[in-house]
Write a structure and sequence with these properties.
Elements: E1 2-3, H1 4-53, H2 59-68, H3 78-99, H4 107-116, H5 120-123, H6 128-133, H7 137-158, H8 168-189, H9 204-225, H10 227-239, H11 242-258, H12 260-278, H13 283-320, H14 326-334, H15 336-353, H16 357-381, H17 390-411, H18 420-438, H19 453-457, H20 460-477, H21 485-494, E2 496-497
Antiparallel strand pairs: 1-2
Helix pairs in contact: 1-4, 1-7, 1-10, 1-11, 1-12, 2-3, 2-9, 2-12, 3-9, 4-8, 7-8, 9-16, 10-11, 10-16, 10-17, 11-13, 11-14, 12-13, 12-15, 13-14, 13-15, 13-18, 14-17, 15-17, 16-17, 18-20
Length: 499
């Protein structure tokens, strides 16, 4: 038995170390490589992340859900899920090694992608989904921390200038291989994964077909959900310069660092919601939990968006140096993505937990398709106004969030009421107020707003304080923020759940 607070602590430990070291690694790379070479690495890694999809195809989401499901309600065994993952991985490696050389990018990018493909071999044996489903986050996050530490040490030792760029795929593969080996070893030692004739059924072919079919739905849905993070660098690399991709990648890294909180939420919510639906808990109870989860999680996203908006002019020069000043406005334009992503996680995770794989697929596939069209066409339209291209990512995330909510509301729990309007009103008031108070902000040029000398002379801390007060007025008036919330959070954190 472990409390949610203990699970949060385990997740936070691993993610803070993993994402923290990953962020420091990206900072060192950005400084050592410069915007152009860092942009090449950002593009290559985005391409590889999509190629990596072929070696998993939804087994991560399906496996987490199945391992979290108790007793005889579980549809597939751990051994069957692992074999399904191996089948996808073998097919992926054959296809990708054949077609990777024909990618429409520069020779430098294609070379890095080719080298990264060798990391698919250890990824084929990855068993992260077992530990996520069992909620053994301390083991999982500790191994991830080891992976991040090894990669950071290799970067610190071997990457000194732009000429060292081709070493990065090798270092990446070594760190991934170590993590996969450790996860495999622990899985076998604890007998979470047992590959034997007794662990497999007579109708194995039929069951594997069922696993591959359902995981494909979740996997395609995952590709759609990753449009926001992985697709823009691919398009920006075609329309704009490698340096632009480097500036954008630097800004995106800061957004992703805050998303550690979102990842913790998803890893906690998915197995607990899946277990709740499995036990046929009252829809009213589940609805109340989701309403609370939406309020708390969206508030975290709102605070994150404001923090990034306010601190971008300080964070970018401090972390990346003077070569990345163009990243400041990009980061500010990207900041609402946090607000929208945190909401999207509630609805997308609930669809998976309720075993609504088809609607999860539809939401992400349609959202990804519309977003891809928007990003491609918008990038072309903004050829002469490239600094505003990050706005396309914000609009795309809004599309993804709305479609996830639409399918959740229509096919899962339509009676749940979410506090959309107060949250979005708070975001709008905060952003408009900040733009007005900044006077000479780089963002104002997009709105053709003239500078104001008086407003520019006001202390920055005063502008931030006034913005936050005005933004939170609708949340207080509509009782979206309640006095009882603090006690509810404390009770939730102390609640004991089965591992």
């Amino acid at each position: 038995m472990s409390s949610i607070s203990q699970k949060v602590a385990s997740l936070a430990f691993g993610d803070l170390v993993t994402r923290g070291l990953g962020f420091v690694s990206s900072m060192l790379l950005a400084r050592a490589l410069g915007p152009e070479s860092y942009g090449i690495w950002t593009t290559a890694l985005a391409i590889f992340s999509y190629l990596l999809w072929f070696s998993d195809l939804g087994i991560m989401q399906l496996g987490t859900r199945e391992i979290a499901t108790e007793g005889q309600r579980r549809l597939y065994s751990t051994a069957e899920l692992f074999l399904g993952k191996l089948i996808w991985a073998i097919c992926a490696m054959i296809i990708l090694f054949l077609f990777a050389p024909f990618l429409p990018y520069s020779e430098e990018i294609n070379t890095l992608v080719w080298l990264l493909l060798f990391s698919l071999i250890p990824y084929a044996l990855h068993t992260e989904w077992i530990f996520s489903g069992k909620q053994e986050f301390l083991i999982l996050q500790s191994i991830k921390a080891v992976q991040a530490t090894v990669f950071f040490a290799l970067i610190l030792y071997g990457i000194q200038r732009a000429d060292d760029l081709e070493k990065l795929p090798v270092y990446y593969g070594l760190s991934v291989g170590l993590a996969s080996f450790l996860l495999w070893t622990v899985s076998m030692y604890k007998r979470y994964l047992v590959i034997s004739p007794s662990a497999l059924t007579l109708n194995l072919i039929e069951r594997l077909y069922s696993i591959l079919k359902e995981s494909l739905q979740l996997g395609i849905g995952w590709v759609g959900s990753q449009i926001i993070l992985l697709f823009p660098p691919l398009i920006f690399a075609l329309f704009y310069s490698d340096a632009f991709v480097g500036w954008y990648g630097a800004a995106l890294r800061i957004i992703m660092l805050y998303m550690v909180l979102d990842r913790i939420f998803v890893q906690l919510l998915l197995p607990n919601l899946a277990n709740g639906w499995d036990k046929e808990i009252s829809a009213n109870i589940i609805g109340t939990r989701l309403e609370q989860a939406y309020r708390y999680h969206t508030l975290l996203g709102l605070l994150g968006s404001f923090a990034v908006l306010f601190l971008a002019p300080i964070i970018i020069p401090l972390i990346y140096g003077d070569l990345y000043t163009e990243s400041i406005s990009m980061l500010q334009l990207l900041s609402p993505v946090l607000f929208l992503t945190f909401q999207n996680s509630v609805f997308a995770t609930s669809l998976i937990a309720a075993q609504q794989s088809t609607y999860y697929l539809k939401a992400n596939l349609l959202g990804g398709l519309f977003s891809a069209i928007l990003i491609i066409s918008g990038s072309y339209v903004l050829l002469n106004n490239a600094p505003y291209a990050p706005l396309l990512i914000v609009l795309s995330e809004g599309i993804m969030m709305y479609l996830a909510y639409y399918y959740f509301n229509k096919y899962t729990l339509p009676m749940v009421k979410f506090c959309f309007y107060p949250m979005f009103l708070a975001l709008a008031i905060g952003f408009l107020c900040y733009l007005w108070l900044m006077g000479n902000s780089v963002l104002l040029s997009f709105f053709n707003y003239p500078p104001n000398d008086f407003l520019s002379s006001l202390p920055h801390w005063f502008k931030i304080s006034l913005t936050m007060v005005l933004a939170f007025i609708p949340l207080v008036l509509t009782k979206t923020i309640k006095r009882s919330d603090w006690n509810t959070i404390l009770e939730l954190m102390m609640h004991k759940t089965k591992t």
